[in-house]
Amino acid sequence: xxxxxxxxxxxxxxxxxxxxxxxxxxxxxxxxxxxxxxxxxxxxxxxxxxxxxxxxxxxxxxxxxxxxxxxxxxxxxxxxxxxxxxxxxxxxxxxxxxxxxxxxxxxxxxxxxxxxxxxxxxxxxxxxxxxxxxxxxxxxxxxxxxxxxxx
Length: 151
Prior knowledge:
Layout: H1 3-29, H2 38-69, H3 72-108, H4 112-149
Helix pairs in contact: 1-2, 2-3, 2-4, 3-4
């Protein structure tokens, strides 16, 4: 086996490990599904913001390897998965925005230290989800453009 083939194999192994770990983490974050429960929504969105980075790294690594190896099918699959996860991130931001008044009201009744901590989590979750969602849309659109150019 050539050196280039070995490098591609290692790249795919790394990308697959990160991607499967990230997708598994995202899936377990939503279980059990309790949309409409502000406690669940706040915790789920915060956890999603903390764990989606694995999926972003996995998709980016997979795109880099597929571009290096000139594989067209993985490019389009990576693009679609990235756009789908990015859409989930933006939808989660909407859910978080709707829960902000409820969460802040509950936190203010629990003391100033707790209220401060909740505000930090809200801001951190919103910033991370925004950045990761934009990054996922960038990876997704880049993968689809690369697929179209490779025809």
